[in-house]
Amino acid sequence: MRIEVLNGTLGEEEIKGYVEYLESKFPDKQIENLTLTVDNDYVDMSYSFGEDVPFERIRRITGYLVGTVDRFNNAKRAEVEDRVKHSLCTSAESL
Question: Is residue 64 part of a domain?
Fold first, then answer.
C-alpha cells in the first residue's frame, strides 16, 4: 500500500489508525493507494483499490455449489454432460 501525507505531518500511530479504519470498512478489498490531506484539525482521506483482486466463480451444478467439476466422480461428471442448458429469452420472444 502506498501512503502519502499532504499539507502537514501525521504520526505513525495516527496513520496506522486510518489504515485500520479502511481495512475494517472494506475487509474484502485491497487498498492500493491512500492519500491523507491535513486541513487544520481535519484529515481528508482519498483511497483507491487494487484492480487485480482474484475471485472464484461459483455455480450451482446438479444440486451442488461448485467452482469447478474437477473433484466430481465419473457419475457426477456424466450428469454435468447430460444436463439441459437453457437459453435466455427476451420478453418479445416469450409473447
Answer: yes
Q: Could you tell me if residue 16 is inside a domain?
A: yes
Band (pLDDT 50/70/90 cuts) for residue 73 is: confident
pLDDT digits (tens, 9 = 90+) for 15-45: 999 999 999 998 888 889 999 999 888 899 9
Q: What is the dihedral of CA 70, 75, 81, 86, to 10 degrees?
A: -100
Quickly list H helices, 3-90.
12-25, 74-82
27 and 7, same structural domain?
yes
Q: Is the pTM of this model over 0.70?
A: no
Helix, strand, coil percentages in the chain from 3-state DSSP, rounded to 5:
25, 30, 45
3-state secondary structure of 21: helix
Q: Which domain holds residue 64?
A: 53-82
Q: Check whether residue 45 and residue 26 sit in a common domain.
A: yes
* Cell output for 15: 496513520
Q: For residue 3, how far is the Cα from the chain centroid? A: 21
